[in-house]
Amino acid sequence: MQIFSFNRRLVSNLMLYWCLFFCLYIISLSVSAQALLEVKIEGASDQQQQNILAHLGPVPEASAQLNSYIAKARDKTQKALVALGYNNANINTKVQRELTPLRLLIQIEPGPATHIRQMNVEVPGDASQDKDFQAFIQNMQTHKGQVLNHGRYETWKSELQNYARSHGYLSGKWQQHELKVNTETQQADVYLVYDSGIRHRLGEVNFQGSDMTPELLSRLSPLTSGEYYQSSHLSALESALRRSGYFADVLVTPDLNAIEDYHVPVNVALTDAPSHSFKVGLGYVTDTGPRAQINWRTPRVNRYGHSQETTLRYSTVNPYASFLYQIPGDDPLTHSYQLKLGLEQNDFGDLSSIQKHAAVVSQSTAHKWIWAAQLRWLDEKWSLDGLDFQAGYLLPGLTLSRTRRQGPIRDPEEGFLQNYQIEATDKLLGSDGRLLRVSAFWKWLHRFGNHRLVLKGQAGINITGIDTVEDLAPSLRFFAGGDQSIRGFDYNSLGPTAEVQTSEGLQTKVVGGKMLAVGSAEYQYYLTPDWRMAIFTDAGNAFNRNNFNPVQSVGAGVHWLSPVGAVRLELAYGVSEDDPPWRVHISMGAEL
C-alpha cells in the first residue's frame, strides 16, 4: 500500500509538470507567431498599395530572413509601380527598429503616370475580312490614351490569341508583340500583330459509343459541316445532346490532329442513359388529400429515340393513370409527336366522374411560345345521386402557352405565365353534342426588396347552342374553389346549382357552369430568405349566361421556400357568405 501511494503521488506530479510545460510551449508558440515586421506604405493609392504588397509577398516568420526581405523591398516596390505605369517613382525605405514589431516604412512619390500613345493592333490573314474580329480589335484600340498597365498588356495578348483560336483561326501566329516605353516622355506604344492565317471550317462530326441511329444523331446536332469553326459551336452541340435526355455523358472534342483542307473533324463520345428510371413520391395537398405517385420513364425505347413515361397516382379524390409515348420530330429538341392515354377519377361539385381519354399531339417549343395541336378522344361517365350518365367527344384543339421567369425556379423574382386552350367538336365528328370551349390562365408576379406581389386570373367559356349543361361531361364544365382557384372553399365546390330529387327529398346540387371568371391578388413579405408571409383575396365563380354570382375570400399564410419550391400553409374564409366557410390550404411546388 505504501508503494502504491508513492507511485500515485509521483504520477500526479509528473502530470502537473507536463501540463505546465505544455502551457509554456503554447505561450511560446503564440509569441513566436506574432509578426516580426510591420509594413507601412505612405503616398500610394489603394491600387498601388495592393500591387506593392502583392510583389513584396508575406512577411517572413523567421528573423534570419528579415534582412533579405527588407533589402529587396525597394526593388520590388519599383517593379510594382512600373507594372501600373509609374516608371519614375521616387521610393524611400526606412526601418524603424525602435518599434515592436519592427516597422518597414515605404515612402512613395509616384510621379506622373505613363500613358499609351499608340495602340497598334493588326490581324493580317482571313481575319482582316472578318467583321466580328475587326469589331473586337476596334474595341481593344479604345485603350489608347489610358494609363499603361503591364498586366493589362499581357491580358490583351491572351485575349487576342484566344479570340482567334476560338473563332477558327487555328494556324495563327505572332508576327510582333511588343511594348515600348519612353520613361522620359512618360509614353508607351503597343504593337500587337497576329497573322490569323486561313480560317478553318467544321468537318465531319463523328459519334461514338451510342446505338442511336446516325440519322437521329444528325438531327440532334446544331452543327453544319462546312460552316466556320467556332469553339462555341462545340459547346452548343454538347448542350443539345445533354438536353435530349438520351445520354448519361457527353464529351465533344475537336480532332486537331486530323485537320484536312482546313476542315476540323469533331469527335463526340457518348454514354447512353440508363434504359429505365423510376421515381416514387408522397405528398399532401388539401384539394386531393394525401397522395402517392410512381413514375416509370424509358428515355430510349428504341434506337430511333422514341420514349415513354407511365405515371400512376393515387389520392382519395383524384386517382389517375397516364401513359405518354413520344416520337422525336424534325428537330428532336423542339418538336415531338405524342400519344397520350389516361384513366382518371375526379369529383366536380356534387358529380363523381370517371374519364377515359386518348390524344394524338404535335408539340413545338422552337420559339418562346409552346404550341400543341391535338386530337383528343374523351369518354366520360358520371353520376349524381345514383343517376348515371355517359358522353363521348372527339375534340380537335390547340394549346398555346408561354412562361417568362427571372430568378431561381423555387422563388422567382419576376415572371408571367400565360396559357390558352381552344377545343371544338360537333355531332358530325361522332361526339354527343356540339361544343366550342375556350379557356385561359394568367399568373404575374414581381418582387421589389422584401415585398412581392402575385396576381392570377382564370377565364373560360363553353358555347354549346343550349343554355343548360346537363348533357355536357363534368370535366368540360367549369367549377371554382380550392388551392388553385378560390381559397376558403372546397375543391370544385363552387358553380351553378340544380334542384335534384333524391331519396331524402329535393336537394340543391352543384353541377357546374358554362363560364368561368376568377381572380386573385396576393401580397407577400419576406421575413428571412427562406420564409415569407402572405395575405390575399380571391374572387369570382363559375356561372351560366346572365347569372354571375361572384364569391370572395380573404386569408393569410406562411410560405417556406424549400429546395423544391414553396411549401404554402394558408388559412382562408369566404367573406361573401352569410355563414362564412373557412379552410386550411396546404400546397407545394414551383410557382411558374
Automatic annotation (TrEMBL):
Residues 302-589 form the Bacterial surface antigen (D15) domain. Interacts with TamB to form the translocation and assembly module (TAM). PANTHER family: SORTING AND ASSEMBLY MACHINERY SAMM50 PROTEIN FAMILY MEMBER, TRANSLOCATION AND ASSEMBLY MODULE SUBUNIT TAMA. It comes from Bowmanella denitrificans. Keywords: Cell outer membrane, Membrane, Signal, Transmembrane, Transmembrane beta strand. This is Translocation and assembly module subunit TamA. Residues 201-258 form the POTRA domain. The keyword Signal applies. InterPro entries: Bac_surfAg_D15, BamA/TamA_POTRA, D15-like, TamA_POTRA_Dom_1. Residues 38-110 form the TamA POTRA domain. It is found in: Cell outer membrane. Pfam families: Omp85 (PF01103), POTRA (PF07244), POTRA_TamA_1 (PF17243). The keyword Signal applies. It comes from the Bacteria. Belongs to the TamA family.
